[in-house]
Amino acid sequence: MSSQHVTIIKPKKIFSFADLKEIWEYRELLYFFAWRDFKVRYKQTAIGALWAIFQPFITMVVFSLFFGGLLKVPSDGVPYPIFVYTGLLFWQFFSSTLSDISNILITNQAIITKVYFPRLMLPISSVVTKILDFVIASIILVGMMIYYHYTPHLFGFILIPLFLLMTFMISVGLGLFLASINVKYRDVRYVLPFFIQLLMFVTPVIYPASIAGKYSWILAFNPLMGIIQSARASLLGTTVLNWNLVGLSFLATFILILIGIYTFKKTERYFADII
Hints:
Elements: H1 17-25, H2 27-42, H3 51-70, H4 80-102, H5 104-107, H6 109-112, H7 121-147, H8 154-184, H9 188-201, H10 216-219, H11 223-236, H12 243-267, H13 271-274
């Protein structure tokens, strides 16, 4: 009678270099997930990937008409469409990434309960498609600068990847935390849209942080404020780039992503059982 060996695969409770090695070993699966998400999103659409441009562009037009035109919201000496679109690029990346990652385990319930693979592959693949959307939407910003004869600061283009990385860290950190909760408590899908909508009004997307006057320090508790304001300062020259604010925002984003990964890894072994 031959003995049978049963191998039990269990995820580690903490994130380590072994996880990075495992993700690299499954890199082809990462490509598959990213390509699948991209195809599903734009499947049977008339304009396809142009939706990545259409949404922030129309939002910019509406904000420019109401806030820039009617309410005369200041824009620190920059044409308001350029000012608000720069903020919208980062906000759109953050909000869409956060929404997708928070629900990524629920939307991939079938594959999670049947096949083993590093669960972190799912949120990472979602971010890949969002970065592509960011790059596509940035084309409109270049076109707007040409239209308004506005010359950006070249130093800003060097720092854009840094600010995009920080936005990535915020959205992934919060997304992993909410995804872990969402597996057990489905209230997240009801609370998240309200949270995102509320957060937009306390983030200087449609207005400069200076409009808050002496209370602008309160906005600094929101790391997105530091990212968007610093992106505008470096690219548009709206204000002097505050490196202390950049450092504070980076520290906050680093803490958020650590919390997100810790929560995700701690609850990962139960995903397939309670999803």
